[in-house]
Amino acid sequence: MHILVIEDDRIVNQNIVILLRREGIVAESVYTGHEGLELVKLYEYDLIILDLMLPDMSGSDVLKQIRQSSNTTPILILSGINIPTKKVECFSIGADDYMTKPYDRSELVARVKAIIRRSRGIADNIIKVGRMSINLNTKKAFIDETLIPLTAKEYSLLELLALKKGGTVTKESFLSQLYGGMDEPEIKIIDVFLCKIRQKIKKITGGETYIHTSWGRGYTLEDKKKS
Amino acid sequence: MHILVIEDDRIVNQNIVILLRREGIVAESVYTGHEGLELVKLYEYDLIILDLMLPDMSGSDVLKQIRQSSNTTPILILSGINIPTKKVECFSIGADDYMTKPYDRSELVARVKAIIRRSRGIADNIIKVGRMSINLNTKKAFIDETLIPLTAKEYSLLELLALKKGGTVTKESFLSQLYGGMDEPEIKIIDVFLCKIRQKIKKITGGETYIHTSWGRGYTLEDKKKS
DNA sequence: CCTTTTTCTTAACTTTATATTAACTTTTTA
DNA sequence: TAAAAAGTTAATATAAAGTTAAGAAAAAGG
Questions:
Q1: Three-class DSSP category at A43
Q2: If pLDDT is split at 50, 70 and 90, which confidence band does B98 have?
Q3: What is the model's pLDDT at position B181?
Q4: CB A9 within 8 A of CB A78
Q5: How far apart are the first and last CA of chain A?
Q6: CA-to-CA distance for A65 and A59, rounded, in angstroms?
Q7: pLDDT band at residue B99 using 50, 70 and 90 as cut-offs
Q8: Are strands B146-147 and B140-143 parallel, antiparallel or unpaired?
Q9: Coil, helix or strand for B116?
Q10: What contacts A178, CB < 8 A, 6 or more positions away?
Q11: Nearest to residue A213, comparing CAs of A226, A198, A201?
């Protein structure tokens, strides 16, 4: 999970980043519109949190430029302006949500999660795959009613798979979403984590892991028996 | 576009319906939770607008029941309660947005449109040739509904053909696009890959492969029966 | 603050799927 | 009909994935 925060107030920006990191989300800070646009061109984010008042250009213009480049990354506007017409304007140029400052921390987190969820076509915070269920709120995974004893990193990896349920996730994508490009360990670690996750699941189910390997492409979380 | 409004206050409900109709959206009114749940089971809506205080049951319970039936229709909560914890609770059980009453009409419309836009998501990029369909997003190819079990390289080759559907691709072009000029194997490998791809397709269709040889020129992906 | 425990990461090794080559057959066209 | 191109198959090489263990780093506990 990878979020870009475009906000010139360093304190607000850092607070958001810390808040998100606590949720296991990799967040990146940027303080000007131009820096933001640059990064958006280079990397794929799951969400962009955008302030409307930036020193070099207006947030609306940043939003416009992102959408004009046919980039569909979800964007949450965070602004001190609480005027309906401003909100409507933002939505009409492609914003996904609009929050006013001062913001409630837990509401911000909740909205962030809701947007990401929806952008992946998922409705609620419990993802089910066969006998497995993954609770995105409590960050715990179960087989039927028994908890799978995963470590933090192992859980994150399983969550990334669950968020793309049925789709393939590449090792490179795991790596960048888990570490955010900074101090990335060797890619082999993904194999190791996956092996351990599978072992733990297998211990409970007695065989089925729901994690399938797409040779040379990545991994998929799916209940194949259904189809 | 089809929206269900679950709100017991008849005036508020009718106002929303009128507002949405003006935007060319078909909106349906319902005044109790049970009526709402009934309709949600029967019809597919693009969005549900849900009040939290209903006469027969709480809006949260309506939301919960909808999600428990694994219905993923986007839901916007419209409530008089402006408490962050209530909002967080709703998001965690699967709400997509939360607006407080009194609401601004144009903001409601803007949010409704934003949610629907997002839930529609990115349209799948699919190329079809006869009974074959190639999904460029998931990088999987099918004959009708059955997956063609291609390896990564085999798929890439088929994709290159699909991208030039109807046109001819030379072996040299395959080679350079597959290996990018570096460490290119012998050109014979293209024949081998094509042979394998055709075999796998033939196994499913029972004959037709849609891959045609242009002697001395290259290969074409096309449904010749059509023309 | 140091020790203990847990988790993360690397490294070495095994297994397996795939990519590539080579040898041979069939088809096309000059 | 001979040469060139394409089709096919099997064998081998290579690269990807699976596994295990051990050392490093981080978190927890005293």
A1: coil
A2: very high
A3: 75
A4: no
A5: 29
A6: 10
A7: very high
A8: antiparallel
A9: helix
A10: A26, A153, A156, A157, A160
A11: A198
Mean pLDDT of chain B: 94
Q: Return the SS3 of B26.
A: strand
Query: Domain ranges in chain B?
Result: 2-120, 126-221
pLDDT at B122: 64
A2-119 folds as Rossmann fold (3.40.50)
**What's the pLDDT score for residue A142?**
97
Residues of B in contact with A121 (CB under 8 A): 72, 119, 121
Within 8 A of A92 by CB-CB distance, chain B residues are 110
Position B124 scores a pLDDT of 77
Describe the crossing of helices A105-119 and B105-120 by its angle, rounded to 10 degrees.
Answer: 40
Selected residue with higher pLDDT from B123 and A64: A64
A81 contact B CB<8A: no
Task: Give the Cα separation of B55 and B191 in Å (integer).
Answer: 70
Banded pLDDT at B123 (limits 50, 70, 90) = low
The hierarchical CATH code for the domain B2-120 is 3.40.50.2300
Chain position carrying tokens 């409601």 = B108
Architecture of domain A126-221: Orthogonal Bundle (1.10)
A115 interaction partners in chain B (CB closer than 8 Å): 118
| Ranges under pLDDT 70 in chain A | 226-227
* Residue B221 burial (CB count, 10 A): 25
Phi-psi region at B182: left, alpha or beta (left = phi > 0; alpha = psi -120 to 50): beta
Q: Is the CB of A175 under 7 A from strand C?
A: no
> Does the CB of B139 have a partner CB in chain A at under 8 Å?
yes
Amino acid A217 CA to nucleotide C27 C1' distance, rounded Å? 36
Q: Is the pLDDT of residue B76 over 60?
A: yes
Distance of CA A207 to the CA centre of its chain: 30
Q: Are A136 and A159 in contact (CB under 8 A)?
A: yes
Predicted confidence (pLDDT) at residue B133 exceeds the cutoff of 80: yes
Spatial distance between the Cα atoms of A227 and B187, rounded to a whole number of angstroms: 38
This prediction has a pTM of 0.88
Q: What is the pLDDT of residue A182?
A: 79
pLDDT at B227 over 80: no
Residue B93 CB neighbour total at 10 angstroms:
19
- Using the 8-state DSSP alphabet, how is residue B148 labeled? P
